[in-house]
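Data card: per-record layout.
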Amino acid sequence: MANVKKLIEEWAVKDLEDGSSLTITVVQCTELGNQSLPGIQILYMGNTINFEPNIVERWAYQASKEGATAFLLTDYSWTAHEDQFIRNYLVPGSPLKARVEVKTRSSKVISKEYELPFEV
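The structure for this 120-residue chain is written out next.
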């Protein structure tokens, strides 16, 4: 069976300083990762994060070692500036969730969470 992608949500946060915006796209996939299991993808600024069972299991383990209630995915986030960023998190627990936090220079932090279609 081929991978079927379904748009969950697309949203943007506008920066009134220069008129730009940061856009986030969240897609549900029927096959992700080496085991071809369901998962979600988060796309932003030309980057894609795959939330699939193999990598999420590792992130959940790292979160439990740190005792984190939300595990920041530093390698998969854009945090070059203090006043504008896109931070991606794994929220451990049941159900597992992906969290995206977006801030522009002129906005407050906008945060959204998405349930993952699997448990680890």
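Known properties of this structure: The chain has one helix and eight strands. The first helix runs from residue 53 to 66.

See the next section for split statistics.
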